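Async update (no meeting this week)

Hi team, since we skipped the sync, here's where things stand on the single-chain job. The sequence we agreed to prioritize is pasted below, unchanged from the tracker. I ran it this morning and attached the output directly underneath so nobody has to dig for it. Comments welcome in thread, and please keep replies under the output.
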Amino acid sequence: MKAVRVILFFAIPAILSILLLSCFNPFSPSIDNSIPDDNIISDQKTIEGLFQNFKYAYTFKDTSIYGQTLSQDFVFTYFDYDLGLDVSWDRATDMRTTEGLFTNSQDLRLIWNNIVFQEGDSLNADVKRGFNLTITFNPNDVLNFYGFVDMNLTRATIDDKWKIRLWKDLTNP
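Output:
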């Protein structure tokens, strides 16, 4: 009887330990199914949400998200220093140009800096904001841009998403 007690004394904790340890694998953590409060894609019902989606589109080279930031009557304008004049293009041209940038670059890093000017109402807003953009085509071909955007943002109702209607690039070469 004493031998049975000794065996049970050691066997029961050993069996419980094996059962408990077999349910835990430190190299295979459980899946986190919680939804974070800071979703990576915004609903664009705020101006900051629009800029967040724009940054997401550049970071992940996602033309579908990028296209959702532009209104149907979108116009992009920049100053061509070689020609000495402003050059503009429409939404379709901008989408093709941006798709080419996304396809031909290895990495895009966009940082939105502070908004330096903002005025408007709940349906139209003019925003001037600084940015830093690093385009890596390959390790030996990296371009850094520091500048400002002057954007006219619009939406039909306060329940709609903000869209970029006019974008003037104020970057110096």
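Quick observations from my side:
The first strand starts at residue 70 and ends at 80.
The beta strands are 70-80, 85-90, 107-120, 124-138, 141-154, 163-169.
Reply here if anything looks off.
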